[in-house]
Amino acid sequence: MNALAPLSQPVFRMLWGTWLVAHICMWMSDVAAAWMMTSLTTTPIWVALVQTASTLPVFLLGLPSGAMADILDRRRYYILTQFWVAAVAILMCVTLLAGWMTPPLLLLLTFANGIGLAMRWPVFAAIVPELVARPQLPAALALNGAAMNGSRIVGPLVAGALIASAGTVYVFALNAVLSVMAGFVIMRWRREHKPSPLGREKLFSAMRVGLQFVAHSARLRVVLLRIALFYGHSTALLALLPLVAKGLPNGDAGTFTVLLASMGAGAITAVMFLPRLRQALTLNQRVAYGVVVQAAAMAVIAFAPNLYVAVPTMFVGGLAWITVANTLSVSAQMALPNWVRARGMSMYQMALMGSGALGAAVWGQVATWSSVQSSLVAAAVSTVLVMALARRLWAGHHGEEDLTPASEYKLPVVATPPQSGHVLLTIEYRIDPAQEQAFKEVMQENRRSRLRRGALHWELVHDLSQPGVYIEHIIDESWTDHLRRFERMTADDVALRERARAFHIGDAPLLVRRFVVDSTVRH
User: For residue 101, which of 160, 50, 153, 159 has the smallest C-alpha distance?
Assistant: First the structure.
């Protein structure tokens, strides 16, 4: 597959352009903030906390942002994120011009800018599969990674040039202008928002269902664990890079910019070779080799004597970083049906950025206690060990599922739909007692399937007087949520349902009954 094929589609090309601009703005802001902090204080922990302040909002707000992106008009929500970032940039300009900037205030404003990232990332992650066919999804996600890392070149270069020639305030002014322009470009997208016939989900209910989906998806849990472990260690390089740059001969803002740009160039180069890598190596191999190479790059950069060593090392580190990140991102996307995609990817983002925020603080503190070099070497050794352990302990959770919506499945109908109260669904199976163990294994899968789709509670009860009789109990929050659970069924869920029903014996069909909890009778 051509790595650039998704760009042939006009809408993807337009939105990809806004994604590139958004990340250029992000890097401009982060570079300006990081360098500004080095002028306000030389304490390593304060410098490292800029990275924490930038990424922590994603961890704290990722899930509600993902839930809103799943239940609101994604186009309007995406536009809002651009104007939020512009407003924060304007506030940065005012604060600098007034001479009020201090290290704590800089962290606070960086945190506010990170809120925009927390809002923007899940909605765009959910939009991409709408724009490209499933076979093109890996290439589209690789292009997103290229945009993120291309911005690693353009953003720092622009920021560095403006800081050196005009001053930091102009970086934030340009950030505001570009963000507003990107917002107006998104307005040209004529996406038709199709609200669910069952109405809009409540925010807290949507968040609960998103959490349940992840909790009961073994494949997605493993992906989240691996990206958290990887990014929590690899972020040491980004968090301490301003100090690495200062430690090089004649190190200044330009040095910092060149190092970031080198890493971005490596990431962009990797995108062109990712289709071949996907054919030549398995998922686990791409992650394992990428982790080792990225760790080696961290160890080398810690002792790089000059830019001639540091630049190619950062380039190689960028190659490895995008290989691991793209592999795990594609794996997460493939594990998510469309109805929960923004929530699932928001939790991927939370794992990535939350671990990045924690990792930046931890490795910054290690550098404060010891040295920048010791912290980078410790992070390099640790990432190889923990990623190898994770692969060993959680092997075998990468099976593909058919997440095609089961559109032919009919919604249940009752004479008088209840207006309130929990709904209890019972399904009575009569099975051959000799098949009991196999039946229970399928029921365990059934439990995960029903909870992933939003059921409040699931249990299997056994009739003591009739050894072959089992009754499945499923409780939904309301009648509407009961219908939503059926609406969310995939081809894989339907196949699982048929496997469960195949255990039923006898001439009588399965006994399916629905009850509503009477809220007028209380304990």
Answer: 50
Q: Where are the domains of the chain?
A: 5-192+202-393, 423-516
**In which element (H, E) is residue 462 found?**
strand 457-462
pLDDT tens-digit readout, 395-443: 655 556 777 777 666 777 777 788 888 999 999 999 998 899 999 999 9
The CA dihedral of 216, 220, 226, 231, to the nearest 10 degrees, is: -110
In this structure, the number of other CB atoms found within 10 A of the CB of residue 420 comes to 9
CA distances from 337 to 150, 195, 494 (A): 29, 17, 14
Q: Report domain 423-516's class.
A: alpha beta
Residues 6+ apart with CB under 8 A from 167: none
- Beta carbons within 8 Å of 219's beta carbon, 6+ residues apart: 331, 335, 397, 398, 399, 401
Token look-up 């352009």 returns: 17
Residue 465 pLDDT: 87
**Chain centroid to CA 280:** 26
Overall pTM surpassing 0.90 (yes/no): no
Question: DSSP characters for 146-206?
Answer: HHHHHHHHHHHHHHHHHHHHT-HHHHHHHHHHHHHHHHHHHTT--------TT-PPPHHHH
Sign of CA dihedral 35, 39, 44, 48: negative
* pLDDT tens sequence across 502-511: 999 988 888 9
What is the distance between the alpha carbons of residues 6 and 133, in angstroms, rounded to a whole number? 9
Q: State the pLDDT at residue 471.
A: 93
Distance, CA of 190 to CA of 19 (rounded, Å) = 17
Give me the CATH topology for the region 5-192+202-393. Growth Hormone; Chain: A; (1.20.1250)
Measure the CA–CA gap between 29 and 175, rounded to whole angstroms. 7
Residue 439's pLDDT is 93
- Who contacts 47 (Cβ-Cβ below 8 Å, separation ≥6)? 34, 37, 38, 41, 239, 240, 242, 243, 364
Q: Is 471 helix (H, G, I), strand (E, B) or coil?
A: strand
318 φ, ψ to 5°? -65, -40
- pLDDT greater than 80 at residue 81: yes
